[in-house]
Amino acid sequence: MSHHYIKFSNVSYTYPDATKALDDVSLMISHGERVALLGLNGSGKSTLLLQMNGLLLPSSGEVNVGDVPVTEKTASIVRRTVGMVFQNPDDMLFMPTVYDDVAFGPRNMQLPENEVARRVENSLSAVGLENQAGKASFQLSGGQRRCAAVASVLSMEPDILVLDEPSANLDPLARRNLLRILSSFTHTIVLATHDFELAKKLCPRSILLEEGKVIADGETEKVIEIFENKIL
Predict the structure, then answer these.
(1) Alpha-carbon distance 210 to 39, whole Å?
(2) Which residues contact 6 (CB under 8 A, 6 or more apart)?
(3) 69 is a domain residue
(4) Per DSSP, which regions of 66-182 are E strands?
(5) Element of type H or E holding 35
């Protein structure tokens, strides 16, 4: 892809049970931006993230990643650019060892094993798990499992990193470690979060969703103030 931006053009999405999760959303996230998605539960944050790498496709409108429209046919291409970390790391860790979990994506890309090993080593080092490679994921702490899930996406070397509630249920030490990891990522980050402090420290820009609509988009401190005023 020539440009790693994300563009939503009049995107709506309705789930099979008739729940309308996104309602005519238009937005643009440029390469290198760090953007937080804010909003109450059910506001459409997770649905918006899932649209970014083709796990869900719009009911109407269009999502583009660079010059590629996100469709069923292009989803595999898009997912090499957009790496997604789910809220529950156990949804992403299913191999016998942490090494195998982190190697799964590169191996699925049919990369040579020496390149797989390089990516796994770099990714585990980035998240501080280089000494845990031979363990099973269930042997790790909750924070370590979250880091292993991030490493499994970093090994794909994405240009856009998308995360759903990355700091949920983390203790203060694990949360600081996560912030360190994300701060070192040099490309685009989009994260859905209820963690205002994480959003302030990591993301200069935030987008506020309400009932599937974008109601504020701008400087994180100002968007959080709008959000707080609405819920108080």
Answers:
(1) 6
(2) 28, 29, 52, 63, 64, 65, 82, 160, 188, 190
(3) yes
(4) 68-69, 82-85, 160-164
(5) strand 34-38
* Helix, coil or strand: residue 32: coil
Nearest to 56 by CA among 5, 14, 6: 14
Give the tens place of pLDDT for each residue, 159-200.
Answer: 999 999 999 888 898 899 899 999 999 899 999 999 999 999
Tell whether 52 is covered by a domain. Answer: yes
Q: In this structure, what token pair is assigned to residue 127? A: 């998240």
- pLDDT band of residue 207 (cuts 50, 70, 90) is very high
Mean pLDDT of 5-22: 96
Is 22 contained in some domain? yes
Confidence check: pLDDT of 16 > 90: yes
Rounded CA-CA distance 111/58 in Å is 31
Rg over alpha carbons for the chain, rounded to the nearest Å, is 17
Tell me whether residue 182 is in a domain: yes
Indicate whether this model's pTM tops 0.85: yes
- Give the model confidence (pLDDT) of 106-152 as tens digits: 999 999 999 999 999 999 999 999 999 999 999 999 999 999 999 99
CA-closest candidate to residue 101, choices 148, 66, 63: 148
Q: What is the CATH number of the domain that holds 36?
A: 3.40.50.300
Q: How far apart are CA 45 and CA 124, in angstroms?
A: 28
Q: Which domain holds residue 195?
A: 6-89+158-231
What is the helix (H) or strand (E) element at residue 213, kind and residue range?
Answer: strand 213-219
